[in-house]
Structures are given as structure tokens and as C-alpha cells.
Write a structure and sequence with these properties.
- The chain is α/β, with parallel strands linked by helices.
- It has a single domain, classed as Alpha-Beta Complex (Spore Coat Polysaccharide Biosynthesis Protein SpsA, Chain A).
- Strands 3-2-1-4-6-5-7 form a seven-stranded mixed beta sheet, with helices on both faces.
- The chain has six helices and seven strands, in the order E-H-H-E-H-E-H-E-H-E-E-H-E.
- Helix 1 crosses helix 2.
- It starts with 8 loop residues before the first strand and ends with a strand.
Length: 184
């Protein structure tokens, strides 16, 4: 676990991959065990792909108490708890975890993401305060911040998650900052 202050940080949000705790909507369609199997293999592949010398990688695990000690996640990658609250509160907390430099957050269940997407997102932070990877459903698959100073703890407060307007409302909640978009 070598964290360099000279590199940006990529945080991957993951849940302890236990049946009934992950991909619950998918589990209703294909079954809990197949959904859990998919999540386990998807997150392992994603973590392998995201290991890159251009950035530090941290796993933000949930639940905090169990995920931190899980044997499922690679021991060679730093782990931190996601913290309490809704998705917005947890992302705001995670954006403040590194005490320096640019940080991006992604979920562990994004099959099509590649290191190229992450490079482009970090590049957007060169001229913007925040960056989002936009999703076709009105949400986002990546959020990043330049991190010149600590961000407010209620950064994403009051956002309704998983709606067609999630990205729009999130960007509006940021106020007058420069926002870039990666791989629209």
C-alpha cells in the first residue's frame, strides 16, 4: 500500500459481496446468488483494471466494520470505510479523505470503465473544480474534485438519487464552481 502525495487518488466504492447485500434489484430478476456472483467477478476485474501507477487507489468499503477486514478484497490496496448516511453523504466524506490533490470516485460495478476514462476525468480537473462521468439515465458513474481545500461535509445534501435528474440537481447544488464532464 504505497500512497504517493504526488499522484491523484481514485476511490472505488464497494460493498461486502454477500448474497442479499449487493445488486438487490438485479437479484430480483436473475436471483440473489447469480447477482452476487456477477458483482464479485465484476468488482475483481474492475479493481485489476484500475490499478495504475498514475494514481493511488483506495477501496471504500461498506459496511465499514465488516468490509475493512474482508478477505475478499486485495490486501495490497488501502481500505477505508464509506461512512454513514445516504450516497451523497458518503461521497462527500470520501472526497475529503485524501488530504491533498485531485480525487475521483467510481462504483465497483461499472463493467465498461477503463483507465482511459479515469485519465480523462483527472485531466478535466486541470481546469475544473468538479468532474462528472455522465450516464444516459440522468445520473453519473464518476464524480471527482480538484481538492485544493476541504469540501463542505453536506456537499451533496438534499439530492434525490437514482432519478433522471440526479446529475442535473447535483451540479446545481454545487453553486458557482467550474464543472467538467468526462466521456459524455
Amino acid at each position: 500500500m504505497t500512497i504517493s502525495r504526488n499522484r491523484p487518488t481514485l476511490i472505488v466504492m464497494v460493498k461486502e459481496p454477500l448474497p442479499g447485500r449487493v445488486k438487490t434489484r438485479l437479484g430480483r430478476d436473475i436471483g440473489v446468488i447469480p447477482a452476487t456472483w456477477w458483482f464479485r467477478h465484476q468488482t475483481r476485474r474492475l479493481i485489476r483494471r484500475m490499478r495504475d501507477p498514475r494514481w493511488n487507489i483506495i477501496l471504500a468499503v461498506s459496511p465499514d466494520y465488516q468490509g475493512l477486514t474482508s478477505r475478499f478484497w486485495p490486501n495490497s490496496i488501502e481500505r477505508i470505510g464509506q461512512g454513514a448516511g445516504d450516497l451523497g453523504a458518503r461521497m462527500a466524506h470520501l472526497l475529503n479523505v485524501p488530504d491533498h490533490g485531485p480525487v475521483c470516485i467510481i462504483g465497483g460495478d461499472i463493467p465498461a470503465i477503463s483507465p482511459t476514462h479515469i485519465v480523462r476525468a483527472f485531466a478535466q480537473l486541470g481546469s475544473n473544480d468538479f468532474v462528472f462521468g455522465t450516464a444516459t439515465d440522468g445520473g453519473f458513474w464518476l464524480v471527482g474534485a480538484k481538492r485544493i481545500k476541504a469540501l463542505p461535509p453536506r456537499l451533496f445534501g438534499g439530492i434525490e438519487w437514482s432519478t433522471p435528474n440526479t446529475l442535473k440537481h447535483t451540479v446545481l447544488s454545487l453553486g458557482s464552481v467550474r464543472v467538467g464532464f468526462a466521456d459524455r
